[in-house]
Design brief:
The complex is a heterodimer of chains A (173) and B (105).
Chain A lengths: L2 H20 L5 H21 L3 H26 L5 H8 L2 H24 L11 H8 L4 H33 L1
Chain B lengths: L8 H21 L3 H25 L4 H31 L13
Chain lengths: 173, 105
């Protein structure tokens, strides 16, 4: 059993454990923490199988942008009288033990991969340049469709959120 | 370290299938809208993982391109879904999906 397989199974175990823990939490903020760890584990798996560009996108867009949206909404919905109690509960050290442990496993793994082995453990590494040439060559129609989909999402989110804001402003104040 | 043994594709696909199943069970079991949206994210991420692993098996870039499209779909889906969640919270004062089972009334 090579070291690469051990790293893969370790990241896969972290991914499964954190996903199961994420979807069984009662508190949405705790679930978000575990979901972010699950996405980081997925990014490490992407790197191990030879897709470094996808790994970066996973962290920047999934664990960064999309999860920030979730955090915003969780924070918006939790504004209220029981906010202090919940904040006290979030800062409970016992709640941070398991996420910190899972993160530590991933951190040691990435440190090992970046320092002790050559770039890309897998036999074949698909470089970002190859992906870019393919993306804007044969798949340029997919880029257009993705841009139209994002525009539709933007318009939909603006429409849904605009009424929410204007009603709150007109009704309460 | 020279040419290392590649991660077996079957194990990567099995991991994607298990993650997808966990997300599907989460969608069916949980009644909190935020948790349901997170379960959908898990399912989309599992699809992306399957694409990446399958693309890496033959050293092709197509898998990563499909992953980017899935990323776009996830971003659009979550923005509209969270907008709907804010609407439901404003109208019904709860984020329980069962209370929104009737569209009019």
């Amino acid at each position: 059993m090579t070291i690469e397989l051990i790293l893969f199974y370790l990241a896969a175990t972290v991914s499964l454990v954190s996903t199961i823990l994420a979807l069984t939490r009662y508190n949405a903020a705790h679930a978000l923490i575990y979901l972010i760890i699950s996405l980081l584990a997925s990014a490490i798996i992407f790197y191990l199988v030879g897709a470094p560009f996808a790994a970066v996108l996973e962290i920047v867009i999934y664990a960064g942008a999309i999860m920030v949206l979730f955090v915003f909404v969780v924070m918006i919905l939790n504004l209220g009288s029981r906010g202090d109690h919940q904040e006290h509960e979030w800062l409970n050290p016992r709640m941070w033990l398991m996420p910190a442990l899972l993160c530590l496993v991933l951190f040691l793994e990435i440190v090992y991969v970046l320092s002790f082995t050559s770039e890309g453990l897998s036999g074949v590494v698909v470089a970002p340049k190859t992906v870019g040439i393919k993306l804007f060559g044969p798949y340029v129609l997919a880029v257009e469709i993705a841009s139209m989909l994002l525009l539709a999402g933007l318009v939909g989110a603006y429409h849904l959120g605009r009424r929410y804001l204007s009603d709150a402003r007109g009704g309460d104040q | 370290m020279t040419e290392a043994v590649m991660v077996p594709m079957e194990h990567g696909l099995a991991l994607a299938a298990i993650l997808f199943s966990i997300g599907l069970i989460g969608v069916m079991v949980r009644r909190n809208i935020i948790l349901i949206l997170m379960s959908i994210e898990v399912m989309l991420n599992a699809c992306g993982l399957a694409f990446i692993v399958a693309g890496a098996r033959w050293g092709a870039a197509d898998g990563q391109i499909m992953f980017m499209i899935i990323l776009t779909i996830a971003a659009a889906e979550v923005s509209v879904g969270l907008g709907l969640l804010l609407q439901v919270h404003r109208r019904l004062r709860t984020i329980d999906i069962d209370s929104a089972s009737r569209l009019q009334g």
